[in-house]
Amino acid sequence: MSETRLITPEGEFELRRYPPRRRELLRAWDAADEYLLQRLYESNLRQRQTLIVNDSFGALAVALQQLSPDSWSDSWLAHQALRENLKRNACDPDSVRILPSTQTPDKSPDLVLFKVPKSLALLEDQLIRLKPLLTQSSRVIVAGMVKTMPSSLWKMLESIIGPSETSRAQKKARLIEVSVDPQLHLPENPYPRRWTLEGTAFEIINQSNVFSRERLDIGTRFLLQHLPRTEGPREIIDLGCGNGLLGLMAAQQNPEASLSFIDESYMAIASARANFKQIDPTLQRAKFYLDDGLAEFQKHAADLILCNPPFHQSHAVGDAVALSMFRQSAIVLRDGGELWVVGNRHLDYHFKLRRWFSSVDVVTSNRKFVILRAVV
Which CATH number goes with the domain that contains 19? Predict the structure, then answer.
């Protein structure tokens, strides 16, 4: 089992990742969180208005909840973890204000604490949207593990916010303190990105943290080429929907189908909703859910689930998210319902799917990907 007790200058806190998993091996914080909290204590920083950005499981917000910070993130799961960890530590649930990534902060922060996200496009978007709120006295500190901090990170910070000063590495973590230069020209925000889906008239809208934001990714392209044909009033789910292309094309193919789009990213759901409006401006045929996969769905609620599963949660790589999606799908599908999955061949999803499905067939494959049909 993983360590769950975070010891900081602010006190000791019981922290767990979300969603909870049996035999969890990963902590709900990293050395960058510890380093940042130690630096804040040593510097005696107690600013009035504190903004915490990309706090993975709420470690920073829980430790600093006496400052009544805002927590700005693109992850609904991260915000759920924060809520659970506040409750776990008997903290006031209203001590931290939760801000989804689709909403720009509305207060000028004295102190900004950034965790480096997996997507530097997301960071760029956040920096550009935040810069007008910063004053010359604002303190901006960026924290991350060295392996997640490419050289382009420094260039981005200095071109948008101002000059930076980097700490020595500690337990493979590093801090960057950025001074606000109000004279810097604020670049135009390049997000959301828009591109035309090949072979269609659809203009695809992708927010900054949505996978494959500039073009159709090759896994989705492969599944779109072999999308299952459906007829009549079917219930179809685009699970881990991203920009919603799988559900969008399934809906175009079957005008009587009802669609559900599910993701844990605020930006993914916003993108999927915007894209679906191109065939259904009133959204009468579609519902959109921020959730831990299918956790809140009823049993036997769907006929078909389409999935291009992620292989990471934040910076952690693994198949735990995909396996959870497969298990949930077997519960939510009706008898005879089908889960269609595209994945890299080496992931061996066909063996894993057999834990929950009566039959698993290879629809087609190429050198890189395989499409699987799993039937309840």
Answer: 3.40.50.150
